[in-house]
Amino acid sequence: MRDNPKAGEVYRHFKGNNYEVISIATGSEDGESQVVYKALYPPYTVYVRPLEMFMEPVNKEKYPNAMQEYRFEKIDPEAEAKEEEQKIDPRLIAFLEAKDYQAKLDVLDSMEYNVSEQTIIAMAVSMDVELNDGTVEEKFRSLRKCIQTMQMYEGTRLR
Question: What is the rounded average pLDDT of the residues 41-57?
Fold first, then answer.
């Protein structure tokens, strides 16, 4: 049995973004426990979700590539930062070594629901693409669109 979230704890959503729990609230109409949490990326939106939904497993039929077991999983931000510094995602290496744009898109697509912001930024830098601020998902979509555009206008020629 998983422990209920507490104020100040940080959780990673299965799509890759991190959120901080602000509080556990009680619904005024139904008395249901609600998790109040905020995004740890601009614009730092605050959300409310029923506790039961917050703690539920990922729907593997809808998201077959999801790497997490649960929709939100508690993380230790300091340990995560140290671990991130020490390892390089092998999919990043595959992306960097890809021979053409389609191969890069294939690697990128395999990472859709489990990619770090640092990896997306490294991929963008390797392609000489500048990404705007936003969520990991927005950066992912932006990079994907840029690569598709390059593929369309430059063919198989990589820079």
Answer: 95
